[in-house]
Amino acid sequence: MGISTRAGDLTLSVSVGVAVRGPSMRGLGELFKQADDALYAAKRGARNRIEITPQSD
After folding, report:
1. pLDDT, tens digit, 9 for 90 and up, residues 13-44
2. DSSP assignment string, 15-43
3. How many Å apart are CA 33 and CA 5, to the nearest integer?
4. Where are the domains of the chain?
5. Of 38, 49, 50, 57, which one's alpha carbon is 20 to 30 angstroms from that of 15?
6. pLDDT of residue 17
7. What confidence category does residue 47 fall into, taking pLDDT thresholds of 50, 70 and 90?
8. What is the pLDDT of residue 41?
9. CB-CB contact of 17 with 40 (8 Å)
């Protein structure tokens, strides 16, 4: 996505990692780890995308 500004052109890239908390998760740390892993998978996969972790439960 390109945006023109007075200072010049600006290009933005958005990658998002999504995780869903299941009943067997031990805490928020595990949820954040899954979301973080999904974010890095989205970045590796070509950027400008959303990666969702599969729900384990």
Report:
1. 899 999 998 888 888 999 999 999 999 999 99
2. EEEE----TT---HHHHHHHHHHHHHHHH
3. 36
4. 16-57
5. 57
6. 95
7. confident
8. 92
9. yes
